[in-house]
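Training component of the fellowship. As part of building independent skills, the fellow (R.M.) carried out the full modelling exercise for a liganded target. The chosen ligand was S-adenosylmethionine. The inputs are recorded below so that the supervisory panel can assess the work.
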Amino acid sequence: MSQIDGLPPLRDVIATHGLRAKKALGQNFLLDLNLTARIARVAGDLSACDVLEVGPGPGGLTRGLLAEGARRVLAVEKDARCLPALAEIAEAYPGRLTVIEGDALQVDVAGQLTPPIAICANLPYNVGTALLVDWLTPPDWPPFWKSLTLMFQREVAERIVAQPGGKAYGRLAVLSQWRTECHIALTLPPEAFAPPPKVSSAVVHLAALPAPRFEADAAVLERVVAAGFNQRRKMLRQALKGLAPDIEDRLRAAGIAPTERAERVSLEAFCALARVLAQN
Ligand code: SAM
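Fellow's submitted model of the complex:
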């Protein structure tokens, strides 16, 4: 039995329920409950929060969140094989864990949660970035959540917090820093997971700002950064020419030299350009 919650150790849970990790689902499980409790603490005091957990798997992070006092956890898991293991956790924490079988990219569960809402997840890379961009770009702000605590490959985490001027700076940095305060809270070596992935991982904490740092329409800003960084070596007058026939004038109106490259443009300047482009 584990000291944290009296449930069996995760290694036994995985063996009992035959949860052989599936590569296609990006399954790299955390087995150390002290570590999952530490990740849960990155999210801050959860005692007054509903937590949305995406991809609970055998439940390591779920147990960390519950043991750290989350008011309630709603977990969305795509792999039905994990449901019996998660049901045992729900039984140990009566009324505090609800599990939904489904694809987090398809199901909309915001309506089933009571604010304040924290989102926590250890997800496969491609699903994680797609969800992050979705959570960051609703038309209105503030969003339904107050914080995101997300595990990524370390290289992706560095792209989220990157500053202009380097290779890591791109779409994720602009969209994340526009509307949140974000930082890397923990880095983890491959051996923290079973099976170990090829690269290190990092937990990023993003706290929703009450209002975006600079005014801009989310859809327009998303289009601008997608086009700008898609061809990051090209000058912006070339990379963005599909967005407006008079793109050079618009870049100048936003205070950006048409010969500039996306990776040297600040968040503030991208927002100025999104505003200029939104004028018919
Ligand atoms: N949270 C567990 C942990 O930390 O040990 C598992 C993490 S594992 C990296 C990713 C989990 O996300 C797996 O359980 C996988 O089945 C699940 N998953 C993958 N794609 C998903 C999706 N689209 N929607 C919901 N869960 C998904």
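The panel noted the following from the submitted structure. The chain has eleven helices and nine strands. The mean pLDDT is 96.
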